[in-house]
Specification:
Layout: H1 2-11, H2 26-33, H3 36-49, H4 53-59, H5 68-74, H6 78-99
């Protein structure tokens, strides 16, 4: 499937945070085409690459000023856009929980 190809490309060094001349990232293309599983894969990998990587991908704009999620909405993929926003929030919470030191408990 598409997810396996994307994973293989990322492992081979495909740039996750770069965009084409049009300013569209891989996330933009996935969202425009309605490939939610690919978009989630890209966001997950971004969150594991940089501390705020998933959010960084979500707010990146193409040459028209649209984010990837706005491109999904423009293609009437509103439900997908909502799920991706929620997924990024979950990733950020998970990243924060992992990155935050655990409080010391007196015994």
């Amino acid at each position: 499937g598409h997810v396996e190809v994307v994973e293989a490309l990322l492992v081979a060094g495909a740039p996750l945070f770069e965009s084409a001349r049009t300013g569209k990232s891989a996330l933009h293309l996935a969202c425009e085409a309605g490939h939610e599983a690919v978009a989630r894969t890209l966001l997950f990998r971004a969150s594991k690459t940089r501390q705020d990587g998933a959010r960084e991908l979500m707010v990146a704009c193409d040459e028209t000023g649209r984010t990837a999620v706005e491109a999904a909405v423009a293609n009437e993929l509103n439900t997908m856009a909502q799920r991706l926003h929620k997924y990024v929030q979950e990733l950020q919470t998970e990243t924060f929980a992992v990155a935050s030191p655990q409080p010391l408990v007196a015994s």
